[in-house]
Write a structure and sequence with these properties.
mainly beta, 10 strands, 6-stranded mixed β-sheet, globular
Length: about 120
Amino acid sequence: QAQLVESGGGLVQAGGSLRLSCADSGYSFSSYALGWFRQAPGKEREFVAHISWRGDSTYYKDSVKGRFTISRDNVKNTMYLQMNVLKPEDTAFYYCNTVPPIGVFWGQGTQVTVSS
């Protein structure tokens, strides 16, 4: 069964860093554009960043530009989100999916909590 599995979340103080990983399992997503999304408590899920299948084009939500970096390694079938200078408003569950997202590929997500 094809799935994407997120990892790397945790609790960090404001100003800290985390690196999230998204690994595919059961199917290679190397030919898909991929993205990171997040959902904060009581809010709708929102787009954070996406990367082309080759990794040569990226796009970010305005509020994370300059702080987050999306990348991928198609040999390892893994996508990353390096998050620096984290803010309390970055607290959310983070998910990866194709771009545009495909419903069956939503995983459990990984929780990121930023304390002030």
